[in-house]
Amino acid sequence: MTRPAATAWTSRADVAQESLDHFFGVPGIQFLANSHPHDRGDTAVFNYWWLAHVIDARIDAWLRTGEARWLEAAVAARDNIVERNGGSLFNDYFDDMLWFALALERLHAATGDQRHLDDARAIWDHVVEHGWNETLGWSLAWRKQQLAYKNTPANGPLVILGARLHALDASGDQLDYARRAFNWLTANLVGPDGFVEDGVNRNDDGAVDTQWRFTYNQGLYAGAALELFRVTGDRSMLERAVQTAVTAVRELSDGSVFRDEGDGGDEGLFKGVYYRYLGEVLAVLVDEPDFADERALLEGFLRASTDALWRTGVVDGMLRPGNDWSEPAGEWIPYSTAVSAIFATEQRARLEAAGGRGEPVGAGSATASRSATGA
Predict the structure, then answer these.
(1) Chain centroid, CA 225 distance in Å
(2) From CA 48, how far away is CA 98, in angstroms rounded?
(3) Residues 343 and 275: beta-carbon distance below 8 Å
(4) What is the tens place of the pLDDT at every residue in 69-78?
(5) Where do the domains of the chain lie, and which CATH numbers do they carry?
(6) Fewest beta carbons less than 10 Å away: which of 43, 62, 202, 231?
(7) Using DSSP, how many helices (H) and how many strands (E) does the chain show?
(8) What is the DSSP code (8-state) at residue 42?
(9) Would you give the DSSP letter of residue 210?
(10) Are 339 and 294 in contact (CB under 8 A)?
């Protein structure tokens, strides 16, 4: 028998998906308006990496429902990226391209269309050829114009994609790159408590950008560690993933919702990255009794934050969230915020469908997470 909570949250996930089109959908090549209302003068801006996450969001809906319309929507988002990018897979930002490649790998798994996997591999090769370098230690640059600037947004998805490509074909060197990038991240941008900084050497001064405390980076590192655990069985990777996921709740939330990370547009998608990989961590912890306390805390946070989202974000039966889920959205929102809300709602629906447990737990009372070093 389907649990009432599962039924309620799968319905909400449908509404979240449909709300993206309701508030942002536009005809023609634009595909999605960048903001709502549509009168801010930014309609024509091409947000390549936001669209890559739209592919992932639509695949989530297809996995939950099996409805062909969501897979068709994922393919449409993929085609829109390539069309608006002049027929090319590539741009100047290595993190952007890796997000697209990750979505393409999932699209291949969903459709069986070899073209999508070939494109993901082509992006991998392009990124490694043009961005991997020895400055500050072997790792990936953020963009082609700043090869000495290294950060989590570029190296995190490199680890995840490398691990996933290795899982499909172990004959290549993707896992080696993934391990080296992860080790570089850990040595340069991760603190003893698992908190992940954004980047280093942005101004060619060797400084770490400790002022940028983003959920995005925590989600990426947790996801990277988890993917390495999946392909290697190294339990220290699972410990790192859990530690960072818990630390993010402790450091960046009030125990119920994440604090507002800014209104520049890109920031709206940051927490969505965390929720995507939180869902993956929770899926693994179901079979890990040693992490029962951490699992309860993380499930509780997922429940508390999505409850807040749906308490404050509903407008005329549709979901229109702001960046701060503790209060209703302002007059203007970017569609990046809607994608984050989709990711979080899909993960809540996934949790309830699996009969997950966990009560809301304040960040201040969080059980101390295990040290990834065993200390």
Answers:
(1) 14
(2) 11
(3) yes
(4) 999 999 999 9
(5) 4-44+213-365 (1.50.10.20)
(6) 43
(7) 12, 8
(8) -
(9) T
(10) no
DSSP-derived pairing of the beta strands 199-200 and 146-151: antiparallel
Residue type, 242: V
pTM check: above 0.90: yes
Tokens 């990226």 belong to residue: 81
Buried b (16+ CB within 10 A) or exposed e, 303-334: bbbbebbbebbbeeebbbbbbbbbeebeeebb
Q: How many whole angstroms separate alpha carbon 326 and alpha carbon 313?
A: 9
User: Token digits for 200?
Assistant: 């280093």
Quick: pLDDT tens for 193-243: 999 999 999 999 999 999 999 999 999 999 999 999 999 999 999 999 999
Name residue 151's beta-bridge partners. Answer: 199
Which distant-in-sequence residues (6+ apart) come within 8 Å of 203 by Cβ?
none
Determine phi and psi for 196, rounding to 5 degrees. Answer: -110, 125
Identify whether 37 is preceded by a cis peptide bond (ω within 30 of 0).
yes
Tell me the Cα Rg of the chain.
19
**What's the chain's length in residues?**
375
